Amino acid sequence: MTSSLTRPGRATPAPAAAAADPGVDPRHRRPRRLGPTLLDGGLYVTLLIGTLVMAFPLIWMVLASFKTNAEISNLPLHLLPSSWDLDNFVAVANSIPLPRMVANSVAITAISTFLKVLLGLGCAYGLVFVEVPFKKFAFTVVLFTLLIPGQITIIPNYVLVASLDWTNTYAGIIVPGLASAFGTFLFRQQFMQLPRSLTEAAELDGAGHLRRLFQIVVPVSAPSIAAVTLVTIVGEWNEYLWPSLVAKSPELMTLPVGLTHLQDLEGVQNWGVLLAATTVVTVPMLVIFLFVQRRLVAGLTAGAVTG
Amino acid sequence: MRSRSGLILPESLRQPSRRSLLQLGGLGLGAGFLAACSGPSVGSSDGGGNAETAAETDWSTTEPAEQITFMSLQQGTELEQELVAEFTAETGIVINHISGGGSYEELAQNFRASAGTGEQPDVAQASDVFWFQYLTSGNTIPVDRLLEHLEVEVDDFQEALYGDYEFEGQHWAVPYGRSTPMFYYNKAVWEAAGLPDRGPDTWTEFQEWSPQIQSVLPADGAAMGWSAPGPSNTAWTGQSIMWAHDAAFSHEWAWSLDTDEALWVGNFYRDAFHGPDAWSKVAVDPAAEFAAGLYGAITGSTGGIVSYREMLPTLGVAFMPGGTIPADAPRVPTGGNGLTISAPTPEKQLAGGMLLRHLTTPENSARWAVSTGYMPTRKAAIETETMQAAIAEVPDRQLPIDQLAITKVQDYARALLPGGDLLISEHFERIILSGEDAEPVFADLTNELQRAFEQNVEPHL
């Protein structure tokens, strides 16, 4: 079943040929209704305001990272810095082991994301394409884990990590979060949309489960994989509480944890330096988002409409 | 010993006690209530830090451990790392210097998480509102005998600062990064308002000055900017205003918020923020907004003496204003953090004591004070060349040292009661933000304090 969705109040556009038909008197052409035009205008204005509201703090953060403390708190506020020097960024690099923290964040994010996506794909494949008893029950359990706040699992996870002697290790930071219910759920919904004939044909050709997964299912599920990957990257990159508990030495700290070392508990908060560090943490994610946002939307909505 | 799964488990997890499980449970409840949800009586020995063993140890026959762990705030400043390196060079004892997070709350959270699995650091920083929780959970040792063995001149510690860590006749920490609240004002505003170049003697005098101050400020300004309500702001400085008017949050474990004096202070706060004669506003970043000229004055920690001046050259510094009690009577709290020993073995406890001795020598205390803005915790530190040079450069550095004469140990309700700091601040928010009358708010607060006491303190006394 297919559904043709058009926006209410708007006629389906006529074919281009008809529009250009010389036999139609332009005076008798149906006049464009004012309502939809105003609606479009209103929507664009709303979108513009929303975009500005969301973008302004980020713009302010980047611009303020070039300002001195006095400039930031000066009244009236000035949007642009008086000079574009990098003093705050230099101060960040001098205050915390920035290259090491960037490397940690990149490594932990990359490894965690890769393994989470891999495990999510495997679980979802098993739930859809492998005939095992209690499949629906297993999926229900997976769904239920989405309802449990992450903070609740911190205590048992910490006990386990400590018992394995994994505190202050990369394994301690990465392993407890590898099971991704979100990824499993999204992939499962995507795989349910795939025609069975795809995998059945591969099975007849003698392909095993792994080959079917990686050569048949994964290529046609690229948008969903991209979406889960991106959401996971952002989540891992910004993760604070768990790494702050497990990583006790600067050699293991990620950027969000490292930022706390720039706080001044006794005296004035150096906002310029803090905002410079926050820019370093935030901008990479924004850039990634800008490049893959279409994939993200496509992936998150895949499997949302069922026929 | 292996568990059934074949995992090698640490001692504390082989037979997890109710206490260790509850300690970990506290982690999930937020740092404010990371207190001893369950634990041994004060100084008992089934915690990580063995208080009874420490009391019986013959230190003269004990050799210090070769390596210990030191958990400090933000893993310390550059100077702290320098001090630790000097200690290792001097003694050969290796320090595994680890981070406790970016705030006192996180520090406590990380300590409790580690202690819950039997991996607590051997030496740890503890803030003024968390050290007692380490004690009630059996994770720290009293330091008196150990410091005596190490020939540390404890009489040289500032009495008000060392006294903060006394409970049941023993000291459970030594002062390290310590501060007091100060009254900061903008001399340029004072001059424009025609006021004398000094801090107000009393809060009511400041209230009388406020119309003149506000007349020279922007329309959205106020005579006074207060830290946004929250732990360690409202309760800490609020304590000073209470004491100045012969009131208190508590006298030991007896709550005293129902007195006429306490209720007067509560309503003084209300009137400062609400009504036609309001002279205060809540500041998100008091220092920045003060420097920008929005407020005539703020209260802040000692660290502001140097750092506020960088933003506001016309900075004035004064003692916290007084009230109805004599001007020389104690009315100012101290704050900040101390160093506790939570090592489980005598060898590590001794090494920890040696680290405490090193970090708090008069010279190192002076270096620490000059570098961080905290106060010198030793009397002899004030006379060092390092400190004298700093005072000569910024004479106002002398003021918090002088103000120590009118400081006193904090009320149990704020400093010792687990979560008390947060409870006080939350209830003061109702007065400051909503303009509620003090009487019902303080009645609710008293009930909450009592409940917290019965749950988190009474079982351990």
Give a short synopsis of this structure.
Chain A: It is a multi-pass membrane protein. The complex is a heterodimer of chains A (307) and B (461). By secondary structure, chain A is mainly α.
| Overall domain count of chain B | 2
Low-confidence stretches of chain B: 1-49
Give the beta-strand count of chain B: 16
Q: Which parts of chain A are unreliable, with pLDDT below 50 for 5 consecutive residues or more? A: 1-12
What is the CATH level 1 assignment of the domain at 97-301 in chain A? Mainly Alpha
CATH level 3 topology of the largest domain in chain B: D-Maltodextrin-Binding Protein, domain 2
**Approximate strand percentage of chain B:** 5-15%
InterPro entries (chain B): Bact_solute-bd_prot1, SBP, TAT_signal
Protein name (chain B): sn-glycerol-3-phosphate-binding periplasmic protein UgpB
Pfam families (chain B): SBP_bac_8
Region (Disordered) (chain B): 41-60
Structural account:
The complex is a heterodimer of chains A (about 300) and B (about 450). In chain A, about 30% of the residues are buried. Chain A has 15 helices and no strands. Chain A has helices at about 15-20, 35-65, 70-75, 85-95, 100-130, 135-145, 150-165, 170-175, 180-195, 195-205, 210-220, 220-240, 240-245, 255-260, 270-300. Chain B has about 450 residues and is an alpha/beta fold. Chain B has 2 domains: about 25-180 and about 335-410, D-Maltodextrin-Binding Protein, domain 2 (3-Layer(aba) Sandwich); about 180-335 and about 415-460, Periplasmic binding protein-like II (D-Maltodextrin-Binding Protein, domain 2). Chain B is about 45% helix and about 15% strand. A 5-stranded mixed β-sheet of chain B has the order 2-1-3-15-6. In chain B, β9 and β10 form a beta hairpin. The model of chain B is unreliable at about 1-50 (pLDDT under 50). At the A-B interface, α3 and α7 of A face α2, β2, α5, α13 and α14 of B.
